[in-house]
Amino acid sequence: MEYECCASAQPWVQFGVEHSDGPIIALAGNPNVGKTTIFNALTGMRQHTGNWPGKTVKQARGSYLYRSIRFTVVDLPGTFSLLSHSSDEQVARDFLVFGRPSATIIVVDATRLERNLNLALQVLEITDRAVVALNMIDEARNKMEIDVEQLQKELGVPVVPTVARRKKGLDKLMQTVYELTCEGLPTSPLRLTYPRHIEEAVQRVEPLLKEELPPWVNARWLALRLVEGDVSSLRSLARYAAPAEKGVTAL
Length: 251
Ligand SMILES: Nc1nc2c(ncn2[C@@H]2O[C@H](COP(=O)(O)OP(=O)(O)OP(=O)(O)O)[C@@H](O)[C@H]2O)c(=O)[nH]1
Ligand SMILES: [Mg+2]
What we know:
Blueprint: H1 4-7, E1 24-29, H2 35-43, E2 47-51, E3 58-66, E4 69-75, H3 87-98, E5 103-109, H4 113-126, E6 130-135, H5 137-143, H6 148-155, E7 159-161, H7 170-182, H8 196-212, H9 219-227, H10 231-245, H11 247-250
Parallel strand pairs: 1-4, 1-5, 5-6, 6-7
Antiparallel strand pairs: 2-3, 3-4
Helix pairs in contact: 8-9
The structure holds guanosine-5'-triphosphate and magnesium ion.
Residues 35-36, 78 line the site of magnesium ion.
């Protein structure tokens, strides 16, 4: 089976993730929400660790087999945002935007949903192939009731309750990742509408970007970054967008 991201380029190779025939799955989330616990539960002993190229930030990647397909999982650094104020944030953002994973698992702490959804929305601004792992649901159940159906409806992507520490919900998570990557499960992620002056600026910048950039670059996302004066996103664009198109020769 051929995956969209593998068809012409292997953009994740620039991020130190080896050549892979199967889908690449990113694990994103706030610090301390259970990303590594999920990563370990999914990948077991099939893991490699190193640093992100050119950074002192640790990278962990591993793989698991599901329905005869080998999924490669990349555990991103825990961040509260993707607005590139730190190396960790840049690494996470660059991998999601320019590494083009086939799907992203957004791990959120169910007991701190309000705070965690900030990052979730930022990830959903970048990609529509995502599933939310509503982790620590065991602790949340003691304190509150979460309407998972309603959350899923509002976010526009699947939401899977998990207790990573006890490996609960992980089958459903793998099944959902499979549906997103191999069966084209449709999603319609919640995208924020910004105040009018921002939207107007974005509307002017976005078409210009679309003309110049490879079609896979999310022009609205980049336009928003330019409007807020985020120079680091531009630097990453220059670094990753052009070579990614020549990914095959770069191998
Ligand atoms: N109660 C409960 N605890 C969990 C669950 N999943 C993970 N934990 C615990 O939460 C803590 C943090 O888990 P990690 O997997 O290290 O979290 P992380 O997101 O990788 O953290 P960073 O790498 O620091 O960003 C650990 O003590 C885990 O045992 C869960 O579903 N329920
Ligand atoms: Mg971790």
